[in-house]
Amino acid sequence: MTKAVLFDIDGTLIRTGGAGVKAFERTSATVFGIPNGTNHLRFAGGTDTGLLQDYFRHHKIQHSLENTARFLEAYVHFLDHLLATTSGAMCPGVTNWLGGLERIQNPPLIGLLTGNIRLGAEIKLRHFGLWDAFKVGAFGCEHSDRNKLAEIALRRCGMMLGTPLDGDEILVIGDTPLDIECARSIGARCLAVATGSHSLEELERHQPNWAVPTLDSISPEMIRTATSPHKRIPRVRTMPGKKGSR
Ligand SMILES: [Mg+2]
Fold first, then answer.
1. Centroid of ligand 1 to alpha carbon of 91 (angstroms)
2. Distances (CA, A) of 149 to 65, 75, 104, 108, 232
3. Which of 19, 27, 122, 203 has the fewest Cβ atoms surrounding its Cβ within 10 A?
């Protein structure tokens, strides 16, 4: 039985119209004097702190606590402003899914498993009126490795529910192969959605338990049906996915 459902943010719950990427770029140009300094970064599925490590290494900037704080403080400032001016949107089916999960008998804990730093996650989700839907989370400020964030989330869900959870009692929902990998790393099941940066075909190659074009393609009720992380479950496939960015 699924006791917790953990959502990725970018490309899974929302698409910011590139506000996150632009906020990174703006910070690089403004605070560190390096225009276009983030072009080499691969944002999809990454963690903010992992991206920052790559950024500092690439530009030979000292990876100090002070530089990290300077970067992230400016980043959230720009993110807040850019969200108001870029054309983002909630991903299809999100509202129905969150409502559907709450209506299930003995509803699962609803949480976040995201590479965003906590404040960045809050700024993005508040912008779309979604922040309060999530009762628990593991965030990119807690570790640069997404698989480690999954371990943190697993422990944290157990603490919230007052009993340790097995991995297969968790469902991870995400839009990249890295989300699928982090679910697998803790023995969780994974629902991959092609509403972000990867096509349905790309996601299917990584063999999530389910792969769907959008959350509209599958019901939250399906989480009742699966009890084993090893059981092969037919994937749903009805239409091509959409491209998106952080
Ligand atoms: Mg994502």
1. 11
2. 20, 21, 27, 19, 25
3. 122
For the record, the structure tokens of 179 come out as 């989300």
Q: In this structure, are residues 19 and 82 in contact, taking their beta carbons and an 8 Å threshold?
A: yes
Residue-wise pLDDT tens digits, 109-145: 999 999 999 999 999 999 999 999 999 999 999 999 9
Give the H or E element holding residue 152: helix 146-161
CA distance 213 to 34: 37
Distance from the alpha carbon of residue 8 to the mean position of ligand 1, in angstroms: 6
Q: What is the pTM of this model?
A: 0.89
Q: Can you tell me the mean pLDDT for 54-75?
A: 94
- The answer to whether 140 touches 149, Cβ cutoff 8 Å, is yes
What does each C-alpha distance from 129 to 81, 95, 134 come to in angstroms?
16, 10, 11
How far apart (Å, rounded) are the C-alpha atoms in residues 93 and 219? 9
Q: Residue 116 is encoded by which pair of tokens?
A: 């965003």
Cα(225) to ligand 1 centroid in Å equals 25
Residue identified by tokens 């959409």 is 242
Give yes or no for residue 56 having a pLDDT over 90.
yes
